[in-house]
Amino acid sequence: MSDPRFNIVRIYLKDLSFESPKAPEIFDAGFQPKLGLEMDSTSRQIKEGLYEVVLKMTVTVKNEEDVAFLAEIEQAGAFVAENIEPEQLERILGAVCPNILYPYAREAIDSVALKGTFPAPMLAPINFDAWYDQKVAAAAEAASATKN
């Protein structure tokens, strides 16, 4: 077996949307933002040894009960992953690749918020290894619940 190989081919923005449903009235209120973040990732094989990983994020910022803005992003990347054991490959696609994509998604969300004249959310760093482990555990729990 040849040596394992992992490379970034390309990182790209697949989809981005921004909504500010209460503008311009929201700008008159004092701004006490409450941030909500939903996140997921998917991967698919494009061809032998080439994979696309998409990090999907929805950032909802509320001021009291009103949605100040909502940003949705699909930050994607194409990655070469060859000669890697299946379990390792799953972790690479599920944790390593989203970790690589996250700073790009974070910057795009900050940029679009600023264009909407809101402060940048400045999302905190995420431990993608722990996040991946939680996803795997939740999937295993859901599978065992289905069997019972």
Write the layout of secondary structure elements.
Layout: E1 5-19, E2 33-47, E3 50-63, E4 66-82, H1 86-115, H2 128-147
Written account of the structure:
With 148 residues, the protein is α+β, with helices and mostly antiparallel strands. The chain has a single domain (5-147), classed as SecB-like (Bacterial Protein-export protein SecB), CATH 3.10.420. The protein is 34% helix and 41% strand. It has 2 helices and 4 strands. A 4-stranded antiparallel sheet has the order 1-4-3-2. Strand 3 and strand 4 form a beta hairpin. Helix 1 packs across helix 2. The longest helix has 30 residues, at 86-115. The radius of gyration is 18 Å and the shape is globular. The protein starts with a strand and ends with a helix. The model has no long low-confidence stretch (mean pLDDT 94). Its main location: cytoplasm. Belongs to the SecB family. One of its GO terms (molecular function) is unfolded protein binding.
Offer a concise description of the structure.
This protein is of the alpha+beta class and 148 residues long. It is built from two helices and four strands; from the N terminus they run E-E-E-E-H-H. The chain has a single domain (5-147), classed as Bacterial Protein-export protein SecB.
Q: Taking Cα atoms only, what radius of gyration do you get, to the nearest Å?
A: 18 Å
CATH third-tier fold name = Bacterial Protein-export protein SecB
- Following the backbone from N to C, one meets helices and strands in this order, namely EEEEHH
Biggest sheet strand order reads: 1-4-3-2
- Strand proportion: 35-45%
- Terminal CA distance reads 40 Å
Protein name: Protein-export protein SecB
Pfam families: SecB
Keywords: Chaperone, Cytoplasm, Protein transport, Translocation, Transport
Subcellular location: Cytoplasm
